[in-house]
UniProtKB/TrEMBL annotation:
Organism: Caldimonas caldifontis
EC number: 3.5.4.2
GO molecular function, one term: zinc ion binding
NCBIfam families linked: aden_deam, PRK09358.1-6
InterPro entries, A to Z: A_deaminase_dom, ADE, Ado/ade_deaminase, Metal_Hydrolase
Species lineage: Bacteria, Pseudomonadati, Pseudomonadota, Betaproteobacteria, Burkholderiales
Gene Ontology annotations for the cellular component aspect, listed alphabetically: cytosol
Protein name (record): Adenine deaminase
Length: 327
């Protein structure tokens, strides 16, 4: 229908996609074969059946196991190219990809292998698909701040290959302020700053992401609605929220898509965007997130579609000249 067509064709960015979360079961098995890695699942269907999550941690356990098949530069290239093709099909003009170096370096895969594969995919996507992109290095928050500093050291020779840093993995019990020093250092280095907060964690974690880490965007942030003062702060400063509706249902942040608060976030004047998070695990890429969410929430119509697309462009770290072209 016309709304679905609008949702697909309107120029938009994707700002919350973990590239390791785009690894489809078929590619997991292909890479396992290519690299001689043994998997705990007999086949693609057996693996897919394990994708029944009860919370963030139950997902992360399977997500990290899936990422263990990634070993060579070609593996990272193939994974990112598969995502870029799907993004273009969904009307994405610019994508900012999270990657988790510690998931790979802790298994003995060099940082250089990861960054070279992803960078070569970005260059190919720009050249062959006309797709703009950037990389955001995420620190795993269940690990120490010292480990984050070590990762930053390894990454610095590749400083011009990524635009910023983020914070992901297990949220509860790992508040943003645990990473105050490393984020301060990244800020001095001129890196852009984002952090996951308010997905499973309380509004207090959104406050400390803003006030201690000084991030420019909040990843998820849906629990901010529990704190009226926080909503006012996010609205006043136009801090974007990278909301991931299908992820929120799969990880039981909301019971049903019809319970999702995206409509309220927009109605409260917040700069919300729609994103896929880990599309291979959560039931779909960006367009699927848009169509299912708009179907479930009557408050979302064409005006909200335009607002979400414009928000995604405004909230991106792309050059101002590129943003002007897309809006
Ligand atoms: N939350 C936290 N960490 C993650 C996620 C998420 O949704 N996806 C991949 N790592
Ligand atoms: Zn995420």
């Amino acid at each position: 229908d016309a709304l679905a067509e609008l949702l697909r064709t309107m120029p938009k960015t994707e700002l919350h996609i973990h590239i390791e979360g785009s690894l489809e079961p078929e590619l997991i098995f292909e890479l396992a074969r290519r690299n001689g890695v043994a998997l705990a699942y007999p086949d693609v269907d057996g693996l897919r059946r394990a994708y029944a999550f009860t919370d963030l941690q139950s997902f992360l356990d399977i997500y990290y196991a899936g990422a263990s098949v990634l070993q060579t530069e070609a593996d990272f290239f193939d994974m990112a190219m598969a995502y870029f093709r799907r993004a273009v099909a969904d009307g994405v003009v610019h994508a900012e990809l999270f990657f988790d170096p510690q998931t790979h370096t802790d298994r003995g895969v060099p940082f250089e292998t990861v960054i070279r594969g992803l960078t070569r995919a970005r260059e190919t996507a720009q050249r062959e698909l006309g797709l703009s992109s950037a990389l955001i290095l995420c620190f795993l928050r269940h690990l120490s701040e010292e480990a984050a500093f070590e990762t930053l050291e390894e990454a610095l020779p590749w400083r011009d290959h990524f635009v910023g840093v983020g914070l992901d993995s297990s949220e509860r019990g790992h508040p943003p302020e645990k990473f105050a020093k490393v984020f301060a250092r990244c800020r001095e280095l001129g890196l852009r700053l984002v952090a996951h907060a308010g997905e499973e964690g309380p509004p207090a974690y959104v406050w400390s992401a803003l006030d201690v880490l000084k991030v420019e965007r909040i990843d998820h942030g849906v629990r901010a609605l529990e704190d009226a003062n926080l909503v006012q702060r996010l609205a006043r400063d136009r801090v974007p929220l990278t909301v991931c509706p299908l992820s929120n249902v799969k990880l039981r942040v909301f019971d049903r898509l019809s319970d999702h608060n995206l409509g309220q976030l927009l109605a409260s004047g917040l700069v919300a965007t729609v994103n896929s998070d880990d599309p291979a695990y959560f039931g779909g890429y960006l367009h699927q997130n848009f169509v299912e969410t708009f179907a479930a929430l009557p408050a979302l119509q064409a005006p909200q579609a335009y607002t979400l697309a414009r928000n995604s462009i405004e909230a991106s770290f792309a050059q101002a000249s590129a943003k002007a072209r897309w809006i």
